[in-house]
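Cross-check.
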Amino acid sequence: MTMQRFGKSAQYLLLGCLLLFALIACQREDSAGEETAVSPDPNLSLYGGNIQRTGVYHTKAIRESEGVKWQFQTGDWIFTTPAVQNKTVYFGSYDGNLYAVDTNSGTEKWHFTTGDIVISSPAVADGIVYFGGMDGNFYALDASNGTERWRFNVGAAITSSPVVWQNRVYFGSDDGNVYAIAADTGREIWRFNTGAVVAFSPAIYQNSLYIGNSSGTLYVIDLDSGEEQWRFQTDGSVSAGPVIADDTIFLVTADPRLTGRLYAIDTNSQQLLWLFQIPAESYAPPAVANGLVYVAGLDGFLYAINTKNGVERWRFATGGPIFSAPIIVENMVYFGGWDQYLYAVNAVTGREQWRLWAGSGVSSPVISDGVIYVGSDQGVLFAIH
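Predicted model, tokenized:
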């Protein structure tokens, strides 16, 4: 294990703000991340790595970090997960801007100012950046220069991170609706009302859109018509977007007893397969690869759970709550902790490979071409290699 430093001291008092805004079988070690991986689309970069949001990324794993390649300072907290496309990293900040930064030098290419903070993680597809704002607008920007292509106003905050598929962009809103918008023009195609806040991100699987709301309902919606196909009611409030792999939906909720639950639901029978109890609330979507689902909680643990039966394989302890969504590359799992560290853990064994000290709370990372990009509550985006 190696340990390095790359930041300033944390401000734990911001923790409460995060909750309000966010609502806020052993495999070979060299094969982890392949079995349930979705084929990557070179023209699409989005939260979760693919439209099923499995958290699997097809790039070179960092097995021993050399430290920080560069860092970029914004005016406030970076809670969004960056998107990387064409040697540019895109991300939003609580300072109200969406930034485009050169991946080689860490210099700003452009920024776009919205009317409020940006929590929605951007998606980049076919030269356009899509994201929502707390100002009630959903934006489409030219990825090369930040010029606005169009905006769509919903009249309520948008924290949901969009998914783009077949010239449509899908997202949820605090107004309780799920929207399908033409990706090129911003024209509304359909909307579906769930009756409660939709703060988190949708996933796509077999021509259906999967999304949950604050009343604890998972909705499955036909992509073309916007009609409900079926629904599943949980015992809590959906606290992260669904992840789908091998005909199974993995969904995290926070229940009234201040604990979290990980549901595994069969996409065909629409029935519960198993339920895993997390001792504390969880506010990050899981990642899935090679028969294991990885989920983090505010109890400071990352859990690896057997996807078939819900039995815990291993758990990894950190020194504070975890809000970060884990990502998987080859046989490695990467995630950030509120104990101010970025962690790299062996996906099969749960053993720590390395950690880096950020000096502040670390959000969800993304990886591209052997570099990890991750934001912090001090407004710094780090590039780590």
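Residues 2-384 form a domain with the Methylamine Dehydrogenase; Chain H fold (CATH 2.130.10.10). Residues 1-37 have pLDDT under 50 and may be disordered. Passed to J.P. for a second look.
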